[in-house]
Amino acid sequence: MKKRKICVITGSRAEYGQLFWILKEIQEDTELELQLVVTGMHLSPEFGQTSEIIKNDGFPITRKVEVLLSSDTAVGISKSMGLAMISFAEVFEAISPDICLVLGDRFEIFAAVSAALTARIPVGHIHGGETTEGAIDEAFRHSITKMSHLHFTANEAYSKRVIQLGENPSNVFTTGTPIIDNICNLKLLNRAEFEESINFKLNKINFLITFHPVTLESNTSGNQFNELLKALSEFENTSFIFTFPNSDTDGRIIIEMINDFVKNNSENSICFQSLGQLRYLSALKHVDVVIGNSSSGLTEVPSFNKPTINIGNRQKGRLKANSVLDCNPIAEEISESINYSLSNSFQESIQEVLNPYGSVGASLKIKTILKTIKMDNLIFKKFFDL
């Protein structure tokens, strides 16, 4: 019997972490063939060359697609998108997948899906229907939804939004987020193992910080991140673990500021291009607060019953657990939110918090649908009117 070829595309460390157990499911299914295409930040030394992690995890890489240019300006990102579309068109012609599977909302994924649409390859999209009003990814995500044929959403509210965009309800599946499978299936490091793995001693209080540029705002990255650093400087007996931002416009401004802060505060701070899934999830287990504007603070951290300080507008519009505290990118508000998150009353209130992004099992659900869905006329779509 001919195996169904599932082409999974990944361009960032966070996206790969969510796809990990889906890749495992596809790889171990004798009726499916995994085609893994790696692009974007995975291939950049500046962002940790995380393609090596993928190989070490036991996933053969079918194709590498280099798209990142040296510039993180708007022009540079747009040129990267153009290069990505050309390159993915060549890849799809060479490997002829039956279905492409993508996750999220980044520009390289938008380019890949555009090429798949032109090549008449059905696309499955994970995490559609969500909103991030402060990021350009909002428009990319909804555009990817309209170019996709199967939709795997994290919540019923997001499924309704995908249908609102005109997608057929029979092809919209509320699976939850696959990242929960990682949290439940990985054997996380204990405190001593984690400290050894990062060569850094944790303190009485520990913060994990990831801050990305707010891509729909102009020239705000440096100012907003400076406000965050001012807030952090008020905390004593505290360690700071920074992870670098994505390769978005003005991301290098934040990277430079992180490096300067760590250099001047080396006794209690450390930074990483990428922690990798095991160390990152282990960090969530051992830190006291997660701070920044990463989607991880909303989708993963609540499952650890830990507080998230969500700064600014990047994640505006997304569903949030009660463990997430929103604040403006102002030092005083950030420090007030952190102090409140550390209070006994707040800590007690989040011990039974529910994660709105689902529970274990999404990866198997998604794999099963990809395996069993009828391919006849899947590529043809009608706008579904409410």
Keywords:
Rossmann fold, alpha/beta, 386 residues, seven-stranded parallel β-sheet, six-stranded parallel β-sheet, single chain, 2 domains, 13 strands, 15 helices, globular, 42% helix
Q: What would your notes on this structure say?
A:
The protein is α/β, with parallel strands linked by helices. It folds into 2 domains: 187 residues, Rossmann fold (3-Layer(aba) Sandwich), CATH 3.40.50; 163 residues, 3-Layer(aba) Sandwich (Rossmann fold), CATH 3.40.50.2000. Helices cover 42% and strands 16% of the residues. It contains 15 helices and 13 strands. It has a 7-stranded parallel beta sheet with strand order 3-2-1-4-5-6-7, sandwiched between helices. A 6-stranded parallel beta sheet has the order 10-9-8-11-12-13, sandwiched between helices. Helix 4 packs parallel to helix 5, helix 8 crosses helix 11 and helix 9 runs parallel beside helix 10. The longest helix is centred in the N-terminal third of the chain and has 22 residues. The two termini are 40 Å apart. 49% of the residues are buried. The mean pLDDT is 91.
Task: State the total count of DSSP E strands.
Answer: 13
Q: Which class do the helix and strand fractions yield? A: alpha/beta
By CATH, the superfamily of the largest domain comes out as: Glycogen Phosphorylase B
Q: How are the strands ordered across the major sheet?
A: 3-2-1-4-5-6-7
As a percent range, the share of strand residues is: 15-25%
- Give the % helix: 40-55%
Name of the CATH class of the largest domain: Alpha Beta
Mean pLDDT: 91
How far from one another are the termini?
40 Å
Major sheet: 7 strands, parallel
Order of helices and strands: EHEHEHEHEHEHEHHEHEHEHEHEEHHH
Task: Please give the domain count.
Answer: 2
Low-confidence regions? none
Shape: globular
* CATH architecture verdict of the largest domain: 3-Layer(aba) Sandwich
